[in-house]
């Protein structure tokens, strides 16, 4: 069985069917990976519906389905043999079908979107919450306790409620739930995610920044001072809502920095780095908006600890991520490009010696909508529900 190929398996989308990838290679830690080659369990949605058998095992509620991250969850779940969507919500677009809002999803059989206040959770086991921060905490507070929840917003990411209130400019209405939430930076906090009911999915910038820095800080290879992060995002990072600053004519043929000295991802990044260091770390962080739809690059300048070499940093990242499916340290000298990860759940990174002795430059790229949002969210829910972590996430990067 372990030598079956994906070409022998019925998936909704053609790209995997052409891949002669040995199933054994794709197995993760979880024994349920065996189900990949179990015949009926790998049938596509269409196959299941037409036979009326083998309904998907987990019923998913998707809150904020009409936004970019919601649509991305729908796209990813098309290839998930176990998770099926039974509830979708929208705000202004409540009452509409997904296919009318996102024609690229018209081939998927999906429920009509309803307003959150009319949502019936009796047919739901787990929820992806793709709502704006601020609105999310009230909604999650009202959900049935038995639901597993992955929240893509920032509402439960910061442990310190006072810090949340300072950076987000409003009181937190669910501090008790905040205590229960687990920060879902998967490759770093996988064990905590396993037992969680509520996961706070990390922001896109914090994901691309913490993945390379946390292993280096844990191994005491870099200094805690003078960490400088220059990060760039595609426009989809700002969501689908209309904003003057995101009009084509404002974005095309130029770049601009925003949130200079005060972007709300700074405390989130600092929380993760400080946990790794067991002492307070403060960073210089400046995000930029780029004239591209998806993609994110973080270029990070660090000071190496006394006596540490670039080779030490490289070997630490190599060791830390050698068994990881979605985080890849590239060969020495290869510069990561957002094109390398577009449409996929990968984070690619590399590390270079700076011309200033003792300093290093780290480059990390992700797709903000996948590893930076919906992909990592699905990775987390797979773990929370004890499914193979890579289920539904084996999309190859789109190039060009
Ligand atoms: N875009 C990205 O790259 C990333 C986004 N995130 C976070 O994920 C969350 C979703 O982001 P994204 O999909 O980009 O956002 P969008 O603006 O594209 O979508 C927001 C969704 O929430 C719904 N909505 C808006 N206001 C309300 C409300 N008051 N009550 C109920 N539903 C509401 C919208 O419905 P309708 O369209 O019908 O009005 C829409 O479905 C945000 O918290 C964002 O910060 C996190 C990481 C990366
Ligand atoms: C390009 C752009 O505008 N990006 C968003 C970050 C997206 C994200 O991760 O947002 P949350 O932390 O709110 O979930 C921003 O800078 O506000």
UniProtKB/TrEMBL annotation:
Give the InterPro entries listed for this entry: AGPR, AGPR_AS, AGPR_dimerisation_dom, AGPR_type-1, NAD(P)-bd_dom_sf, Semialdehyde_DH_NAD-bd
Reactions performed catalytically: N-acetyl-L-glutamate 5-semialdehyde + phosphate + NADP(+) = N-acetyl-L-glutamyl 5-phosphate + NADPH + H(+)
Q: Does the keyword Secreted apply?
A: no
CDD domains according to UniProt: AGPR_1_C, AGPR_1_N
EC number(s) stated in the UniProt entry for this protein: 1.2.1.38
Under SUPFAM superfamilies, the record lists: Glyceraldehyde-3-phosphate dehydrogenase-like, C-terminal domain (SSF55347), NAD(P)-binding Rossmann-fold domains (SSF51735)
Q: Where is the active site?
A: 204
Keywords attached to this Swiss-Prot or TrEMBL record, sorted alphabetically, are: Amino-acid biosynthesis, Arginine biosynthesis, NADP, Oxidoreductase
Which Gene Ontology terms cover its molecular function? N-acetyl-gamma-glutamyl-phosphate reductase activity; NAD binding; NADP+ binding
Instruction: Name its pathway.
Output: Amino-acid biosynthesis; L-arginine biosynthesis; N(2)-acetyl-L-ornithine from L-glutamate: step 3/4
Xref: Pfam families: Semialdhyde_dh, Semialdhyde_dhC_1
Asked if the record carries the keyword Signal, the reply is: no
Which terms does the UniProt entry file under GO BP?
L-arginine biosynthetic process
Q: Where is the Semialdehyde dehydrogenase NAD-binding domain?
A: 59-196
Write down the NCBIfam families for this protein, in alphabetical order: argC
Q: Which family does it belong to?
A: Belongs to the NAGSA dehydrogenase family. Type 1 subfamily.
Name recorded for this polypeptide: Probable N-acetyl-gamma-glutamyl-phosphate reductase, chloroplastic
* Source species of the chain: Durio zibethinus (Durian)
What taxonomic classification does the UniProt entry list for its organism?
A: Eukaryota, Viridiplantae, Streptophyta, Embryophyta, Tracheophyta
């Amino acid at each position: 069985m372990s030598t079956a190929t994906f070409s022998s398996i019925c998936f909704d989308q053609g790209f995997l069917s052409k891949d002669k990838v040995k199933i054994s290679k794709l197995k993760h830690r979880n024994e349920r990976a065996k189900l990949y080659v179990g015949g009926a369990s790998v049938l596509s949605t269409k196959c299941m519906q037409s036979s009326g058998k083998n309904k998907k095992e987990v019923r998913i509620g998707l809150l904020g389905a009409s936004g970019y991250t919601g649509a991305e969850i729908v796209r990813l779940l098309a290839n998930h043999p176990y998770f099926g969507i039974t509830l979708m919500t929208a705000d202004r677009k409540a009452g509409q079908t997904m296919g009318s809002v996102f024609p690229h999803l018209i081939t998927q059989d999906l429920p009509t979107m309803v307003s959150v206040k009319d949502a019936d959770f009796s047919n739901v086991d787990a929820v992806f919450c793709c709502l704006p921060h601020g609105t999310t905490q009230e909604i999650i507070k009202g959900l049935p306790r038995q639901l597993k929840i992955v929240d893509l917003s920032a509402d439960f990411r910061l442990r310190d409620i006072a810090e949340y209130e300072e950076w987000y400019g409003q009181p937190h209405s669910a501090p008790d739930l905040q205590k229960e939430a687990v920060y879902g930076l998967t490759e770093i906090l996988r064990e905590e995610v396993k037992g969680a009911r509520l996961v706070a999915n990390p922001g896109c910038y914090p994901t691309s920044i913490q993945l390379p820095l946390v292993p280096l800080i844990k191994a005491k290879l870099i200094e805690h001072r003078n960490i400088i992060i220059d990060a760039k995002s595609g426009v989809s990072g700002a969501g689908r809502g209309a904003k003057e600053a995101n009009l084509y004519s404002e974005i095309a043929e130029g770049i601009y920095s925003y949130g200079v000295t005060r972007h709300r991802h700074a405390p989130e990044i600092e929380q993760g780095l400080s946990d790794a260091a067991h002492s307070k770390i403060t960073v210089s962080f400046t995000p930029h908006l780029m004239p591209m739809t998806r993609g994110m690059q973080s270029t990070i300048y660090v000071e190496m600890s006394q006596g540490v070499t670039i080779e030490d940093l490289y070997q630490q990242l190599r060791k830390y991520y050698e068994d990881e499916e979605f985080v890849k340290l590239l060969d020495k000298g290869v510069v990561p490009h957002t094109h390398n990860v577009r449409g996929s759940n990968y984070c690619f990174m590399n590390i270079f010696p700076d011309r200033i002795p003792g300093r290093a430059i780290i480059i990390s790229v992700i797709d903000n909508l996948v590893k930076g949002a919906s992909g990592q969210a699905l990775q987390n829910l797979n773990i929370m529900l004890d499914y193979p972590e890579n289920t539904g996430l084996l999309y190859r990067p789109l190039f060009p």
